Amino acid sequence: MTTPERSVVDRVDRPAEPMPADEAVSACTFRTKDLSIWYGDKRAIDNVTLDIASNAVTAIIGPSGCGKSTFIRSLNRMHELVPKTRVEGTVLLQGEDLYSSNVDPAIVRRRVGMVFQKSNPFPTMSIGENVIIGLRLNGVRNQKFLNERLERSLRMAALWDEVKDDLHKPGTSLSGGQQQRLCIARALAVEPEVLLMDEPCSALDPIATAKIEELIYELKTTYTIVTVTHNMQQAGRISDYTAFFYLGRLIEFGPTTKIFTNPSERQTEDYITGRFG
Amino acid sequence: MIAPKHILGTFDEALASLRNNVLMMSGLTERSLERAMKGLVNRDDNICANAIADDEEIDQLEKQIDKDGVDILLRFQPVASDLRRVVSAMKLSSNLERMADQATTIARRARKLNQHPPLPEVELMKPMYEHAMSMFKDSVDAFVREDVDLGRAVVPRDEKLDELNRLASHKLVERMAHDPEQLRGYLNLIFIGRCLERVGDHATNIAEDAVYAAAAEDIRHQTLVASS
């Protein structure tokens, strides 16, 4: 008896079902309400109300000076490092007001990790030390625990195989793309709830960029990710939701597919199609 | 709605060139269909030959539009309405090329009919042709003017064309039974009717693409969705 041939349909590798991109965000990690931020007299963010979905990637786009970076920095109170900053409105992380007087900004930054445009490993530290420095500063001394967390974070950042034999070498000895993944590993080591990324690929070549993008795609199963990018194609590739900012205001927010195929606002359409001005 | 200028002038030029080629291809396809029908009605082999010759230029334009479209996608990575315009233009050219193929088939069948005594049943093709051409012109207009209402209105008109084709085929089959001597002629007319019916299908596709380009709304296969 001959084995029946598999049909063509059976041979098709089916990708995992994509995340449904509903108009409304169902479960949200962050909720900003009427958020306004000033640097001295200058209003950088103007009345922004936005829900950021859990376990999804939200891209913030907009022209330079529109408040993208200020907005994501406000999600872990990093913008407060700039003098004469003032905030109005609320930012809720899992329902908790981040700007409440009894909230310690250092704890907020532990819960909400951040990766910057330019990779910034500590120059005097080895690759391994760079990853676990956050834990050490938080008083963790158990070497077995630190080693486990080191490997786990580097694996999550897709860097372990490339550096496992060179953990003692300086972090700055790595390539630009590796350094950026090292910074991601460093952010992941303290097990944050959210990862903020401020143009994480803007200084990287296409191969390093592709690795970071794949990493973002994998990390969103565990983390809520908010990223700022000037690269429209990248926003289209990696994000589930997109928010368009202009002059400090949130002009449009919605599923990325909708924003990049049929935005509701004319300003969004003009910006993403390159007709801004 | 006329979009404001792109920050890259070369993008606007590339998009305009793509659109012009689509318009030229539409014009040539329309001419080819007119010639094929004229060759059938006037029993003129030369006009039929012209219709067949048009196909070559239309085929080349289809390749050019595909090449230009891919080039735009590669160079400019358009999004939103720009992306929809490029994708729709490429789909339009594919439908136009198939319409031109129908014109060629009509012209070839007409030449065969011209070798035999005239059949009065050729008249059955006229209302089908007029209806199909009206759908075709409106669908291209809908695309050019980004007229969503016009595009939407074209789609249900295909049913009438299908009905006209059914009636014509029925009559021609009846005639075959009564006049078996002209069997081949009636068969050729049935095939020509089928070609005109296909022209209506392609016009419907173009209208649907026009609606997508203008409003990002996919109106294809709506009966299927509604019934499932």
What is the CATH class designation of chain A? Answer: Alpha Beta
Alpha-beta content class of chain B: mainly alpha
Query: What is the largest interface, and how many residues per chain?
Result: A-B, 15 and 18 residues
| CATH third-tier fold name of chain B | Methane Monooxygenase Hydroxylase, Chain G, domain 1
Overall domain count of chain B: 1
Number of helices of chain A: 11
Give the termini distance of chain B in whole angstroms.
36 Å
CATH superfamily of chain B: Phosphate transport system protein phou homolog 2, domain 2
Overall body shape of chain A:
globular
User: What is the 3D form of chain B?
Assistant: elongated
Low-confidence stretches of chain A: 16-22
CATH architecture of chain A: 3-Layer(aba) Sandwich
Radius of gyration of chain A: 20 Å
Please provide a written account of the structure.
- The complex is a heterodimer of chains A (277) and B (228).
- Chain A has 277 residues and is an alpha/beta fold.
- In chain A, 34% of the residues lie in helices and 24% in strands.
- Chain A has a 6-stranded mixed β-sheet with strand order 6-7-8-3-9-10, sandwiched between helices. Chain A has a 4-stranded antiparallel β-sheet with strand order 2-1-4-5, covered by helices on one side.
- In chain A, strand 9 and strand 10 form a beta hairpin.
- In chain A, helix 4 crosses helix 5 and helix 5 crosses helix 7.
- Chain A is globular and about 55 Å long.
- The termini of chain A are far apart.
- In chain B, 82% of the residues lie in helices and 0% in strands.
- The model of chain B has no long low-confidence stretch (mean pLDDT 94).
- The interface between A and B is medium-sized, with 15 and 18 residues.
Properties at a glance:
heterodimer, A: 277 residues, alpha/beta, Rossmann fold, six-stranded mixed β-sheet, four-stranded antiparallel β-sheet, 11 helices, 34% helix, globular, B: 228 residues, mainly alpha, Methane Monooxygenase Hydroxylase, Chain G, domain 1, 8 helices, 82% helix, elongated
